[in-house]
Amino acid sequence: MKYIIIALFLPLTIFSQNDKIHVYFNKSVDNEASNLVDAQQVVNIDDTIISYIDKAQHSIDLCIYNTTNTQIVTAVNNAYNRGVAIRYIMDSATSNSAINGLNSNINTIENNSTGIMHNKFVIIDYDIPENTVLITGSTNFTSQSINDDYNNIIIFEDNAIAQPYLTEFEEMWGSSTLIPDENNAKFGSDKTDNTIHNLNVNGTDVEVYFSPSDNTTSKLVNTINSADYGFYFAQFYLTENSLGSAIRTIYNNGVEVKGCIEMANSLGSEYQSFIDLQMEVYSYEDVPAILHHKYCIVDPFNQNSDPIALTGSHNWSTSAETRNDENTVIVHDLYVAQTFYEEFNARIRQVNTIDELENNFNVSILHNNYELSIEQLNTNKKTVLLYSLDGKLIYSSSFETNISINTQLFTKGIYLLKVYSNKYMKTYKLLL
Prior knowledge:
23% of the residues lie in helices and 31% in strands. The protein is α+β, with helices and mostly antiparallel strands.
């Protein structure tokens, strides 16, 4: 067990790590960023999820936006075959291709709202308090989310925090039995604020909120406003103005602010307003794969200023606040805050790395109306591959000068364009 001892002008205080809270990242971390913790990168983060599913003795409730990972579904089927009770909630608009392999005796339900069911959480053995596990975070159960994109999971081995998640699950399930009640199932704006929000996990204060019923954005604003020394964030979207305003306010009040945004130039993004103030905030649009995190960190190196790590499924957008089914967990803990900071510092270092690729990969990409044009600026033959976010290859071709792709053939959304030369490969994220 690690300890930190703070002396000097403060009374002698010893802090110990909470062994009931575990955080994992699927991409690189910077273990030099903190002397207190060593954040863990788990390359096959699905194996970690499966290991908990394999330990289930009584029940597993899964509330997952999209599932294309067949190994996880196989583990769920194995649990069912050994007598574990299974319930599965999913979004109606995603592919959920692996669900085709789910045992047909396992009941499922899809959302019936105008928003999306965007949660990613699993409750294991709620009826066996000593075995209860809650898994949440930003990770969808897809190959793209698990293997390529930047994501986190946070695991609580605690029955108390599972209680509000079970209440939320059964509100969407429509019953407390194994059989869903579609007539009673509530999603999106039909839900009510009916869960416990303030909990204690083995001595650590934790807050839990669900969208769109719980006014989650106001809790995010409160978290931002609590920063006295440092505020750090990694966000897929940051388009909610009240959150941007809160960040600008603490920055103007002298708090150190650093951040990374995936969709930095999307409609309504707060990114440019941060750049205008000369904040150290970076666009991740030109970095391969997708920064899918939805976390922030408050005062990770100041124990007496309430260090916080916040994560979950909730993008910092209006849709997440008003339409989508989401969850947010706020952990008041020095160790967890510094664990997230080690991942964050790796993202900052990555975006600041000057890659040789930038000087050798001369391609111009334009998207106008219904045409995607790729133009060669040197003479190397290249191959272009276009993937949907769930990892499906939908277009491929080789070219030496330029190429045009009719984007009317594809549904609207985010795509990954991979361009190869004989030596280099670069990935571009496109909104078509």
